[in-house]
Amino acid sequence: MSELSPTERTKVKRVPHKAATDTAALYDLLDQSLVAHVGIVEGGQPFVLPLVAARVGDQLLLHGSSVSRLMKTIASGAPICVTLTILDGLVLARSAFESSMNYRSAMILGSARALEGSEKLEAFLHLTEKLFPERSKELRLTTEQETKATLMVSMPLNEASVKISSKFPADPVEEYSLPMWAGVLPIKHTYGEPIPDPNLIPGIPIPDYISRWPEGRT
Q1: Which CATH number belongs to the domain containing residue 83 in this structure?
Q2: Which has fewest Cβ within 10 Å: 6, 136, 142, 212?
Q3: Is 139 domain-assigned?
Q4: H and E: helices and strands count for the chain
């Protein structure tokens, strides 16, 4: 398995033992995440906004409106910062100071390029399948106007860091005797019961593929 090659900008300096060193950790995180937060700087002012994201090989796809200031900036090749986080649990320690969270997070630096033509259509299909597995085969075709209204960009995963925290409370030994509960409260990401569109044609059942959608995506 290939390893991440940290740069001076992505090297984990705070609690470095939590840094993941292989690309599998990065890919797993990207494949489970549905939303990335993308940061740009415009006129000296930072802006951070959420975008739908999906991984294809060693590239990250980002998708948004063609009239979006954020997407226009990204598509221009400007430097960007992308972060993703999955919260796995709350760590309940015996003090507020030691209480924390278990999580998996990634930061990716670089620039992206706009996709066009068949590359754009393939990326749009991949992104749709990431969000809604097996649904593409029954959706109507995307119109030319809808394609023009969408920007799709691809960002290489060349400069990235991953940080993972999975632990029990790190209380001092002398506090173990305090009469309070301590431990980890896991957080699970699950789907709820499907809610039909009020305008749905009567008699159309819930697609069976929804029951096969992966749990744990966030």
Answers
A1: 2.30.110.10
A2: 212
A3: yes
A4: 4, 10
